[in-house]
Design brief:
It contains 15 helices and 22 strands. The chain has 465 residues and is an alpha/beta fold. It folds into 3 domains: 218 residues, 3-Layer(bba) Sandwich (FAD/NAD(P)-binding domain), CATH 3.50.50; 110 residues, FAD/NAD(P)-binding domain (3-Layer(bba) Sandwich); 105 residues, FAD/NAD-linked reductase, C-terminal dimerisation domain (Enolase-like, domain 1), CATH 3.30.390.30. Helix 3 runs antiparallel to helix 5 and helix 3 packs parallel to helix 7.
Length: 465
């Protein structure tokens, strides 16, 4: 039997980061994954999708930006297959990097399907059916999540897709229906629209990107309409059928039942935890009411020595949150100094066009909690760098407590706003006020000046509006 201090089940951003931190703290560590190092994020999620989005940005410029930038084509041809191949190279490079990090930190890698056989034991079955028994005083569950499939719908990988099939396909249909307008839905809408695909977003809630501030939803709806991405909100999908030419979606909306036809449909609604078949029930690990593993602030489950991080906990299903959980978990196991995570103030990033970035409370949430709310905005249209980039839709919005001047949240939509979040999240964590942000001199011309200007606006003296 292989004996370790820590065994991590799942090698995604939560799992492999937990393994590295545990090894750094002197713990003998092993990691298990049934498919690949890097998990969904590096292989078929965050990383390859950002590569495709870069290709889409170029495609969008070539298709519609010639007049502004001074070029034209007689016969522009866009090869989406080349974009996918580039995304696979990017993904492969990072996955190899994770393998290097495992070796560098002396972490034993076991590829196979893991199952808890006792509180301190894991059986790993490889592709040949060979079983290896591992033992550790601490086991971290980081098995992630999988897409929710609508009842009665079969994913065939050709006409009915999840993100996994969508990110790997090298040919695009003429038209697609995307069910769900969260991050996955709007990012694929951005990519496919840039390549000329007719995109229809179907969202059962009253607005797209429903987890974001209401003003963000309105601004993105306006941008999508300009890009000719159709959106149908307050519309619930009732059934999906394959047809001779593609798919037919039957849905109910404000005007009654409707039918939509397209070449493909992408299911981008929600996710369910990967908790089945890994032995959690055999050792008594408690799941919450949504089926995710219940954890405390240390990432500990109800069973001593069994921990959980990442999407399988359902706290906030983002790769960087899983990584932060992994670090805290390893530090708690080792008895090292650590922190308590505030999930509400975690940064959220969506890479549609225009990009969305946010953290903390929306304006509506802040008011419902009884805060005396004040907001401040600054538009990218008044930012020199954004104008120079030819990408100036959107704004930054700060949500403040009017009395304490503390930042309750921030909501940004516009060019590269995902890169602007850290200054704001750090300011909130350190209890800095807009006055402090405004007094921090920002280089000119940069997109980051919108943060300074919004902070000045909060103090009643914005300079450039």
């Amino acid at each position: 039997m292989n004996n370790y201090d820590v065994i991590v089940i799942g090698a995604g951003p939560g799992g492999y980061v937990a393994a590295i931190r545990a090894a750094q703290l002197g713990l003998k560590t092993a990691i298990i994954d049934k498919e690949w190092l890097g998990g969904v994020c590096l292989n078929v999620g965050c990383i390859p999708s950002k590569s495709l989005l870069k290709n889409a940005e170029i495609a969008r410029t070539l298709r519609s930006g010639g007049r502004e930038f001074g070029f034209k084509f007689d016969n522009l041809q866009l090869d989406y297959g080349t974009a996918v191949k580039r995304s696979r190279r990017v993904s492969g490079r990072l996955v190899r990097g994770v393998g290097f990090l495992m070796k560098k930190n002396g972490i034993a890698v076991h590829m196979g399907t893991a199952k808890l056989t006792a509180r301190d034991r894991v059986a790993v079955t490889d592709t040949d059916g060979q079983v290896t028994e591992l033992r550790a005083a601490n086991i971290i569950i980081a098995t992630g999540a999988h897409p929710f499939i609508l009842p009665g719908v079969t994913v065939d990988g050709e006409r009915v897709l999840t993100y996994r099939e969508a990110i790997l396909q090298e040919k695009l249909p003429e038209s697609v229906i995307i069910v769900g307008s969260g991050a996955v839905g709007v990012e694929f809408a951005t990519v496919w629209n840039a390549y000329g695909v007719q995109v229809t977003l179907v969202e059962m809630l009253p607005r797209i990107v429903p987890a974001e501030d209401e003003d963000i939803s309105a601004e993105l709806s306006k941008a999508f309409a300009k890009a000719k991405i159709k959106t149908r909100v307050n519309t619930r999908v009732e059934r999906i059928e394959t047809t001779a030419g593609g798919v037919r979606v039957t849905a109910s909306g404000p005007d009654g039942e409707i039918t939509l036809d397209a070449g493909q449909v992408l299911l981008a609604t929600s996710f369910q935890p990967n908790t089945a078949g890994i032995g959690l029930e055999d050792v008594g690990v408690t799941l919450n009411e949504r089926g995710f593993i219940a954890i405390d602030e240390r990432m500990a489950t109800n069973i001593p020595g069994i921990w959980a991080v990442g999407d399988v906990t359902g706290k906030l299903m983002l790769a960087h949150v899983g990584s932060a959980q992994g670090i805290v978990c390893a530090e708690n196991i080792a008895g090292a100094e650590t922190v308590t995570l505030n999930y509400e103030m975690m940064p959220r990033a969506t890479y549609c066009h225009p990009q969305i970035a946010s953290f903390g409370l929306t304006e509506t949430q802040a008011k419902k909690r009884g805060h005396s709310v004040e907001t401040a905005r600054f538009p990218f249209q008044a930012n020199g760098k954004a104008l120079g980039l030819g990408d100036y839709a959107g704004w930054v919005k700060l949500v403040l407590n009017a009395e304490s001047r503390q930042i309750l949240g921030a909501h940004l939509i516009g060019p590269e706003v995902t890169e602007l979040l850290p200054e704001l999240t750090l300011a909130q964590r350190l209890a800095l006020t807009p006055e402090a942000i405004g007094r921090n001199v920002h280089a000119h011309p940069t997109l980051s000046e919108v943060l300074m200007e919004a902070a000045h606006a909060a103090e009643g003296h914005a300079i450039h509006i």
